[in-house]
Amino acid sequence: MAKIAQSRHTAVAKKLIGVADTVVTAAERRQDPMLSIPIRSLSNVTFNPRKGMIEMGRKKQARSFFNVGMAKKFMQTVLVADALEELQRANLTTSLREIYYRTKHTIKDSNENTFDTQNESDPLIEDLEVALEALREELHVRAENAGSIVGPVVFGDDGDRVDCTRLGKGGYSVPSIVEPEYLEIRTCTADFLLLVEKGTQWNRLSEDKFWRRYNCVLLTGNGQPPRGVRRLARRLHEEKKLPVYVLVDNDPWGYYIYSVVKQGSINLAFESNRMAIPKAKFIGLSSSDPDRYGLPRNVGIKLNEKDIDRAKELLDYDWFKKEAWQKEIKRMLASGLKYELDALANKDFQFLTKKYLPRKLKEKDWLD
Amino acid sequence: MPPRPEPVPAVTAAEMGARQREISVSEFFTKNRHLLGFDSPRKSLLTCVKEAVDNSLDASEEAGILPEVTVKLEPVSTNGSVAPSQATRFRVTVVDYGPGIVREQIPPIFAKLLYGSKFHRLRMSRGQQGIGISAAGMYAQLTTGKPVQIISRTGPKKPAHYFEVQIDTKKNEPRILEKKQVDWESHRGTQVTMEIEGRYQKGRASVDEYLELTSIANPHVHLVYQTPEGETKDYPRTYNQLPVPPREIKPHPYGIEFGMFLKMLHDTKSHWLSGFLAGDFSRVSSALAEEICKQAKIPPHTRPRDLHGERAEALYKTLQATKIMAPPSNCLSPIGEQAILTGLYKQIKGDFYTAVTRPTAVYRGNPFAIEAGLAFGKGPEAAAKKPEEAAPLAEGEEREEESELARVIRYANRVPLLYQQSACSTFKAVLDTNWRTYGIAQSKGALPAGPMVIFVHMASVWVPFTSESKEAIADYDEIRKEIRLALQECGRRLGGFLRRRERAKSEFRRRNIFELYIEEVAEACGRLKGGTLNVGKLKDQLQKIAMKRTGGEETDQALGKSGGPEGLPHSIIVTPEGVEGAVPLLPDGGAPAPAGDGAMGRLSEMTPPDKPAAKTPPAARHLKGSGRRAGAKPAGRKTRTRPKRKGK
Q: ω before B417 within 30° of 0 (cis)?
């Protein structure tokens, strides 16, 4: 567990203690204790076209104690606040799962557990993040390290110099908290950053030393990129002025990953300011690529019902209203097929490194 | 080449003719005993008990005597004692304290098939055809060779007669092996003993189940059962009113087929056609009879016997086309809601009971009435029992909940039906009913799930069975519809009960939830505040808010008892605190005293006056017989000594 600077503790700890104050004050006044928590759903986000990102609205949800439907959640929220405050006091960071275990116990005189699964505690931590306007890092909660980076960039991590050109094919494992206090970007000489959806393609590019040839940073989040990866991309983009390109599968989920990187996610809309990269470009796979690169139809996969529904949802999102995007998505729906990045191997194992990306970059064939 | 078989000499018509001969009913049923319910040894044992008990009950009721029947099963072994479950031979003894049988009628009743008083009358009774008891005797004769032994006495001043009889199967006539006067401790009644091949096994469709079910539908009967294991089970009388004696009715024109009509034309005592129509059918008045004759263009003064062929058919068709009132319903004697409730309450543990008697309806010209009942739940004992101290669950673990299906108990004219459940109209109606509407789980095409017993009874002058062994009611649309309506009414009441209980439960849960969580929330707040908070005070404050929010004392009331079963007629609700509703008074004082004023009012109005007979301990009654006391009840009827213990 990393030691952290002492400076902001009191502020966050105060906010957490405020939860207890809410309960005490309400009880004094013989009122139902109530926490108001901003709503984290599509209904409470708006797309700000000027900033090019998703922002959270003002809608809040009252979580009160004396309501059968909410009582347990209220109790759980207080327990989580207690655990988070304990972290502040002890000056430790921990994982979501450890918070789950820390707060789990059997309620006195009953068979009922405070929490039955981690799925119950995770959203409460996000609730508190939003309600208290505290970042997850400030709450001392980290996620799993779930990303890798390789390329001409040098970090300072806990006083160690990490040169990402000298870490073999494996690269540097992106930590969950990448704020400047924790991770310093010392130098970066790359020309652009390529964010790859899947580890497989990242490995291919890393193994082929694509980054050396095209002087770029290769980053992957193994699927939907976690906060650390998104935040790091944003910092490299902002601090080192690296253009960001996103390479994902050609399916609705791939499109959405790109949009999360670019405009932010619905669930973490309050973090868009720190995470979104409105200038990120979508480099592929595009629904026009199979034609252009001669991918045979038989390496496509038929869209299932869920895919189709999701694609239709995307068509309705404000941030997909650009004509090029409507065309892109409708083209996929019309073909009825989706393509994985892996399908490029059908032409050649190194097709991605040697043909596909060079041509894309040369033709500046990307979507904004 | 193999040698060709010798050609079989052809048979001449004369030779064939010589082989033709009459078959007696007895011979027929000897070969086809499965038609009468004697297929397996286990079922045969049940059928013998059933026939004897049904006869005893019919006879006692018709004579206006509250029935009292003792059933005794003894394993018989040729070499030493044998365990009841291993025995293959049993001695079945059934004793009643009913009207008895006059001497000369004893042999034909027990040793002549199709001899009885019930077949020719349209009157609701357990037996219908006059096959039952003699068939049982025939089965005894067939499997063990032993005769049927009968002792009967018609009154305290009359002698008791002892008979040993067998059937001459060729002639379908009784053969008397022994007859004498004996001393008998009973003042009145009949005792039958048969030795038969059988198997005794408890459980579904056993003698035990049959007697238990009989006791449910006949709470006015006192049953004593001595099991093959030597145990004595007592099913006390919990309802002291004899069923209203059903009236005998004339057939309704709509229920008569043409062949039957011709036979009636031939047999009638009327001299004129119009007289025949008005006199031999129900709901045909003299005026209507004249009208029918006119319509059929047959003079009303024709002699019925002279009517043949086309003219008879024309009259029959006119009769069927004429609008005639539905048959009278006073020929039926339904069990009654209160009696069903009493029977269910006595025999089945539960939390909720209800019963419905439908008005009389008609199928094929036969009046019938459907009654349904429900017993739901596991009883207050199960509810009061503390649930096992379950360990807190780990992630991914779940508590298992048992799911049993409802049990359907079926009756026709108060007789339990134990076989062929799925062929029975009642069972189909139970499946037809949408129990989910009433808050009971039910998978598609299956019985409803839950701790529930569903009672269905059909009372009719003629119950349409699917076979001679009387195991399932035929599936007439009219019958199925009536059953469904009765079940739906029961279901509605059950739904009302369940909703009420659920309301109280959810209030309780609400309170509980808050109490549980207040502890957690207050402790966490205490930790957050770093020990500067008075946790006890916070808990108290939160408790007070919780009280206010969950309705305070109102909830306490909902959790306890809030009056009688509101809007649930003919129902009983049992809670660990007591019983509400139309609770019967059990003679042994076994019923908990009802609580609540509302329930009291209902109670006094529905519980029959306690008869002295009920207070007599069963053992004492046993010796003296209960005839006189109970016989006093239907004052207007004379006790008939004519035999009427016959039949299926």
A: no
